[in-house]
Every structure is written in structure tokens, then in C-alpha cells.
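Let's sit down with a protein and look at its sequence and fold side by side. Go ahead whenever you are ready, and we will take it from there.
>
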Amino acid sequence: MKIGILCGSFDLLHQGHLNLIRRAKRRCDILLVGVNSDEYIKQNKGHKPVLPQKTRCNLVKELRDVTAAYIIENGMSFVQTMIRVGVKIDEYYRGDDARGCESQIAENKFLVANNIKPVYFKYTKNISSTKIRTKIQTGV
């Protein structure tokens, strides 16, 4: 049985999120999804999410391709927690917009050292929670 992990904010759930989750599930039997906490988003993205963490997590949990969803502080601590409790993770999924970031390089070393394959999926163009938020705020 193949286990995969995907992490994200999933604020203003949209087609790009659904594409990412669907692609991830095609590669594994069990898909565990980490939903970034409100505090994590504030600290790392510089804004408050539109939807609170519990709502975002509940929405993600309801998607048919998601086996389980958890509120997390960051992806690597989620992976480390899963490893500590004995979950054998096979793959860690990301959008390819993260590829090559300094933090991703260090994280990939950790993943590979723990026999977890980093897998990147093509980013869905022209849609993001940031673009939706901007459109709502500006009306454009």
C-alpha cells in the first residue's frame, strides 16, 4: 500500500487545489493532506487566510481523493510526526511552483534520506487563492 502526503493552505478552495489533490491520489492508495494553520499562513505568506483553518481542513477532508486531513504548522514537521508514529510515507507531493526554492532543496534532502520520494506536479495556471482574493478586493 502506497502512502502519499500533500501539504498546502487550501484557502478559497479552487480548481488548482482539486487538480493537485487528484494528481496526488492517482499515485498513491492513501493520501494524507496537511492543511497549514492560520498562524503559519500569517507568518509565512504575510496575510490572514479568508477561511479559518478548521473550515479549510473540513473542506479538504470531504474531498473523495483525501484519506485524511490534518491542521499542521508546516509540511516537514507533519512528515516528521508521521514518521515518528510509524507511518511509512512513500511520496511527498508539491506543485512545481515550489521547485528549486532554497527551502525545498533542504527538505528534499530530508525526504530522500528517509526514503520518501519528492514528486512535483504542474501548477494550474491563472488560478490561485491570491488571485481570487485580489479579484474580490478590487473587483477586477
Q: What stands out?
A: The longest helix spans residues 15-26.
